Amino acid sequence: MAEKEKKVKKSENAIQRYFRETTGELRKVNWPTWPEARRLTWLVLLVMVVVGIFLSLVDYLSHGLMNLVLGL
């Protein structure tokens, strides 16, 4: 029986093995429901906006500080 498995594995190329293993792993994934996906999408968008505002503020303040230091 072990010899048969070795023969099958030898004839299987790397591309076939990759797709077989990938589909096996994707079956194990716990996919979110639509309400969870929508909620998480809104959370990501909110975090992006907050980080964008924070970085804009840091940029504005550092620009003003550099103008004071360099006297421009």
Beta-strand content: under 5%
Shape: elongated
Average pLDDT rating: 89
Structural category is mainly alpha
What integer value in Å does the Rg equal? 27 Å
Topology, number of strands: 0
Could you spell the SSE succession in H and E letters? HHH
Distance between the termini: 81 Å
Strand count, sense and barrel status of the largest sheet are: none
Q: Give me the oligomer status.
A: single chain
**What is the count of helical runs?**
3
Low confidence ranges: none
The structural domain count equals 1
Question: What percent of the residues sit in helical stretches (DSSP H or I)?
Answer: over 70%
What does this structure look like?
This protein has one domain (2-70). Helices cover 86% and strands 0% of the residues. It has helices spanning 2-11, 14-28, 34-70. The protein has 3 helices and no strands. It is an all-alpha fold and 72 residues long.
Main features:
single chain, 72 residues, mainly alpha, 0% strand
In short:
This protein is mainly alpha-helical and 72 residues long. The chain is 86% helix and 0% strand.
List the helices and strands and how they pair.
Blueprint: H1 2-11, H2 14-28, H3 34-70
